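> call design_seq(struct)
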């Protein structure tokens, strides 16, 4: 039987775990997790977690990655968005944009990237949301000047 204490303990264990995608595994679709993620296989889709992401030497991601921290030893084709440290080892191959507060690139890493601070990403997201709000006719306030039709009319 589950008590409050065992539920809390189970949640803590889940939060401290790592989701591992092994070599030879191919995922087509987005990945969202609450735990750390280690990718040694192939992922074609976005990866998102509030924790750490590790792309192993055999790992390959085609999509955007959002995390608190990342270490890339494999290949990434997409944008990397991290609040903390973005680390690229000598074996890493990266194409895309990197938004991070801190970045570490080892000599030998194959990088074709644009690098900007994480705060820049947040500002861009805010601007995009504002522009979307202004350009979306369903959100535009002028539509609400008309009285609503009743059902069945």
């Amino acid at each position: 039987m589950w008590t409050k204490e065992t539920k809390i303990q189970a949640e803590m264990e889940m939060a401290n775990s790592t989701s591992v995608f092994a070599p030879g595994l191919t995922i087509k679709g987005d990945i969202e997790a609450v735990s750390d993620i280690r990718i040694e296989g192939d992922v074609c889709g976005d990866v998102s977690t509030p924790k750490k992401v590790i792309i192993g030497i055999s790992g390959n991601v085609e999509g955007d990655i959002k995390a608190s921290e990342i270490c890339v030893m494999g290949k990434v084709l997409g944008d990397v968005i991290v609040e903390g440290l973005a680390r690229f080892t000598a074996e890493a191959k990266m194409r895309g944009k990197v938004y991070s507060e801190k970045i570490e690139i080892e000599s030998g890493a194959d990088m074709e990237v644009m690098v900007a601070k994480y705060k820049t990403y947040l500002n861009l997201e805010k601007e995009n949301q504002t522009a979307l709000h202004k350009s979306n006719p369903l959100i535009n306030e002028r539509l609400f000047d008309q009285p609503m039709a009743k059902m069945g009319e």
